[in-house]
Each structure stands twice: as structure tokens, then as C-alpha cells.
Design goal:
With 399 residues, the protein is an alpha+beta fold. The chain is built from 9 helices and 17 strands. It has helices spanning 25-42, 53-66, 69-78, 87-93, 123-133, 145-159, 257-262, 266-273, 297-302; strands at 3-14, 49-51, 99-101, 105-116, 136-140, 177-190, 201-202, 216-229, 232-238, 244-251, 278-286, 288-295, 327-340, 344-356, 367-370, 375-381, 387-393. Helix 2 (53-66) packs antiparallel against helix 3 (69-78). The longest helix is centred in the N-terminal third of the chain and has 18 residues, at 25-42.
């Protein structure tokens, strides 16, 4: 697969005048539970879907470190953090930015803070973010939103290899913008067992509604980890080096993807992935590209994170000096892109939040795995077990 990148950006602004009041396993499990719950909140929109729960969680984690009181409690609940975890626990459990690269596998993470010039930030917060995530504070003049958005977009574009060139528009910023937090992840890896392009051809794909289409479908017969459970097949396609893999969850008729996803839980997913014997599999998988853009405000509200958006309730006193009611979260925007072909995957994602003041083939018959109808897919780190990216393929659009 090719490049995968994700970015989460949080913008913090001055609140309106008069407003009132492996990573450790528990964190990995929390991140993966958040991935499934966020998918559930986003899944009501039709069509293809792609996002990076890892990126979103990292940026919300940066927000959590500066939150206090009920605001912090709600963010911790949305992130599924273990009961009783403090901000210090979260800091200790947060892994440093990944930086590994070779010809076949790359995984990088980067973070940055963009603060309004002259605004009084809490030095302890800035130093904590730098120490735990390597994020530096970049002074920015938000009274010039065109220049400020260009600065941030240039940073985003460089760290997503040009796949997210315009995360922010000038209208996303204003004179009340106080802080933008960005998190980016970039992934570039080849398949451990690439598909032979000569075996790629147009084949039928059956969407949940509407007539069949004829996308280019890749084909390979090889040994892969495979689980077969009631209503689904779960296939693991490793990347070169074994540090990550794509997991494809394919419903088996008459089970629909909507029905399968609605009851999918983290314990169930963990159970499936713990029982994937190496199996000779005849894989048919579409080449595809997918683009998604979300405003996550409603999704995060629905998951229980309401105080952060409420000028009368938000408490980010850990970020800014001057009391508990200086900042409020105004918007969270996420963009994502992925392209899958015979050799690799290329993908990128970005989020913005705004605050206001294998073994040899066995001599056995192969098992067909024909992804010719809607399916879920995950890209997971085999080092930590964290879900880096997650998507729904409803109808392929060839790269």
C-alpha cells in the first residue's frame, strides 16, 4: 500500500465577552474503543467514509491536557480513558512521535501549536505538550487570517505529503482565534504480498443500493490470516516488515454492512483478531480512492463532549492564564484521503478544531474472499495494536 497520512488540528479562540463558567495497553484499548464509537457517530452519512481515529484522539488528547473540571471529564469519557486516569497518567502513557522509515515502510507523526501573538498561555501546558508530543508553539497573527491559514496549511501539506493542501480557509480563523493544535500522521508501506497488476480487471461490485458497478478488482491467492465468523469474514493483509496491516471486515450475506457495524464492539473485534489462522485465501479486492471531509462538532456532542463547545461551561484553564473561562472550542474539522492499489496505499487525513476566547501455501482448497459489496477496513499498528485509520467502502472509485 502507499502513503497514509492524517492530521488533526484544533483551533482555540477567545471566548465571547461576558461568557461564564507499544503504548500501554489500557490507552491502546481506549483509542480503539474511541475509533469504533466515532465511526458509529459518523456512519449515518451515506457513501464512502475514511478517517484517522488515531489523529483525532491525539489532538483531543492535547485538548484534554489543558481541560479542567467537567470539560476534562467529558473529553476523558469520549476518549474512553480508564476510570481514574489523570492528565499525568495520560502524559506518561502517550507515546512519543513515531519516526521510522525505510524503503518499504514509513510511519511518522508530528504535532504543532499555533498561538496568537501576545496571548498569555500557561507555560506548564506548553512545556507538557512539547515534552510528551514534541509540539512547538509557533506565534501567529490571526488578525491576518489569510496569512495564518497559509502558514498552517503549509505545515499540514508538508506532513501529509501534499494530500491535504488546504485544511483551513481564511474564514475558519478570526481575530478571536487564540490557538490551533495540529496532529499529523504519515504512513507509506508496500504490501507484504503485492497483487499482480496483470490479474486486475473490471468486475462487478454490488452497492447497498443502486445498480452494480464495474471497478477494477485486484486478485491474489496466497496465505493470509483469516477469521470466519457468523455474518462476516475478517482478512488481514500485512504490510512489508510486519509493523502494520490492513484489516478488512466483509459481511457475508444476508448480513448487511450496516447491521454488522451496528453491533460491532471492541471485545468482539479483539476476539476476531485473536483467532485468524493462516489460510490459503483467494482474495478479490477493489482498487479504490476515497475522500472524506467532516465537521466533527455534532459527532463529538453526540458522544458526550458538549461542555467544550459551550461558552458558559468550557474550562480550558490549563491552557490559558486568567481563569477558567478564557477559551471555548468552536469547531473540529477532519479531512481524509486514501488510495489503494496493487503495490501499496496512499492516504492522508487532517482535523481542525477551533476555540474562541507468512507460511508456505498449504495444499488445501483456497477460501474465497470476494470484496464485491460494501465492507469496513482498518489500518492497524502491529506494534501497539492501535487503529491508525478506519473506513467504509460503499462504492469504489478507482485510483
Amino acid at each position: 500500500m502507499r502513503k497514509l497520512a492524517a492530521l488533526l488540528t484544533l483551533l482555540l479562540l477567545a471566548r465571547p465577552a461576558g461568557a461564564q463558567t507499544p503504548a500501554p495497553q489500557p490507552l491502546v484499548q481506549a483509542e480503539n474503543a474511541f475509533a469504533l464509537s466515532l465511526y458509529g457517530a459518523l456512519s449515518q452519512q451515506p457513501g464512502n467514509l475514511f478517517f484517522s481515529p488515531y489523529s483525532v484522539a491525539t489532538a483531543l488528547g492535547m485538548l484534554y491536557l489543558g481541560a479542567r473540571g467537567g470539560t476534562a471529564a467529558q473529553i476523558a469519557q469520549v476518549l474512553h480513558l480508564p476510570p481514574g486516569w489523570s492528565r499525568a497518567d495520560y502524559l506518561k502513557a502517550t507515546p512519543p512521535p513515531v519516526d521510522t522509515s525505510d524503503d518499504a515502510f514509513q510511519l511518522h507523526a508530528a504535532n504543532a501549536l499555533w498561538g496568537a501573538r501576545g496571548y498569555s498561555f500557561n507555560p506548564a501546558y506548553i512545556s507538557q505538550i512539547k515534552a510528551s508530543l514534541g509540539a512547538n508553539l509557533h506565534p501567529e497573527d490571526f488578525s491576518n487570517p489569510t496569512a495564518a491559514s497559509q502558514d498552517i496549511n503549509s505545515w499540514v501539506s508538508a506532513r501529509t505529503h501534499g494530500k491535504i493542501p488546504d485544511l483551513l480557509s481564511p474564514s475558519d480563523l478570526s481575530t478571536t482565534t487564540r490557538l490551533v493544535l495540529t496532529d499529523a500522521i504519515y504512513f507509506n508501506a508496500t504490501w507484504d504480498q503485492p497483487f499482480d497488476p496483470s490479474n486486475t480487471s473490471p468486475q462487478p461490485f454490488y452497492p447497498a443500493s443502486g445498480p452494480p458497478t464495474a471497478p477494477l478488482m485486484m486478485n491474489i491467492t496466497a496465505n493470509f490470516p483469516l477469521a470466519q465468523v457468523q455474518g462476516a469474514q475478517i482478512l488481514i493483509l500485512p504490510y512489508s516488515g510486519g509493523a502494520a496491516a490492513m484489516i478488512i471486515i466483509l459481511p457475508t450475506p444476508p448480513t448487511t454492512l450496516a447491521a454488522l457495524a451496528a453491533k460491532l464492539t471492541l471485545p468482539e473485534l479483539n476476539s476476531w483478531l485473536s483467532n485468524t489462522p493462516s489460510t490459503l485465501v483467494q482474495v478479490t479486492l477493489p482498487k479504490f480512492t476515497s475522500n472524506s471531509t467532516f465537521t466533527l462538532n455534532h459527532a463529538l456532542h453526540s458522544l458526550g463532549m458538549s461542555n467544550a463547545f459551550n461558552p458558559a461551561m468550557a474550562d480550558f484553564s490549563g491552557i490559558a492564564r486568567g481563569g477558567a473561562h478564557g477559551l471555548v472550542l468552536s469547531s473540529v474539522i477532519h479531512q481524509a484521503y486514501i488510495s489503494v492499489d496493487e503495490s501499496h496505499t496512499e492516504a492522508a487525513a487532517a482535523t481542525d478544531a477551533t476555540m474562541d476566547m507468512a507460511t508456505a501455501p498449504a495444499p488445501l482448497p483456497s477460501v474465497p474472499f470476494t470484496a464485491d459489496h460494501p465492507f469496513l477496513y482498518l489500518i492497524r499498528s502491529n506494534i501497539t495494536g492501535a487503529i491508525l485509520f478506519m473506513g467504509r467502502m460503499a462504492a469504489p472509485s478507482n485510483p
